[in-house]
Request: fold
Amino acid sequence: MLGDFITSILFAFGLSAMVWLGLRYRRRHLAREAYRAAPMPMYWRHILRRRAPVCVRLPLGLQARLHRQIKIFLAEKTFTACGGLRSVNDAMAVAIAGQACLLLCGREGDACFPTVSSVLVYPGSFYSRVRSYDAAVGMEIVHDEARVGEASPMGSVVVSWHEVLQANALQGNGRNVVLHEFAHHIRPTGTALLAALRSGHRKLRVHGEDAVLDAYGAESEDEFWAVSVEAFFEDAVRLRETHPQLYGAMSDFFALDPAEWWSVAGGA
Ligand SMILES: [Zn+2]
Reply:
């Protein structure tokens, strides 16, 4: 009798959960459809031209897909001002969304960084608590480390607005904190890409520097992936020249060929 009662309760609970999840999915689906259909405000295009100029170089078909992803990104993610920043205004949010969505616009489907729910923006560098093992003293130490970006597995990306502005240059210095941190929320796949990343990371560790890739990539294969993504979009022509296998594998993975955006348009 008690067993039947518990079974009924569990059944009712399970059914309620399924209905709730179904309604939630439906609401989310309808909201996405509405955002996708809505026209992109003209002033967002001006912001992109100013703050994420590579977006303007995209072929028109890709620009349409990028705009669709930006609208979904802005509708789904929350932006929080931190460290004395008064607010994250539209111009800042669109600039960050525009750069992040470059990673998505060539790929099939609408998945918009499902592991990211919020973006935290600091005015400049910020401190993050780090635990590391100190072999010299034989124990774990805790210290605060200055950072300009961070990707938390708990669902947030943290960036310094000052650093976001550094990526403003056309075909700049190969650095882009937004691309770097959002790359940490995309898992590279495919035999060719994984092999190119492993080999590139090994070489960078041995040589300690590279003409195109940030030396920080030597830290780990994850960091090598993130700095490669920065170079893929920000220094595409030189990456293609100096690391053709890595560039080719990344081009297949993202279904994008950024080096062409610059050569076709007579770029930098
Ligand atoms: Zn990183």
Observations:
- The pocket of zinc ion is lined by residues 180, 184, 223, 226 (CB under 6 Å).
- The CA atoms of residues 115 and 155 lie 5 Å apart.
- The chain is about 55% helix and 15% strand.
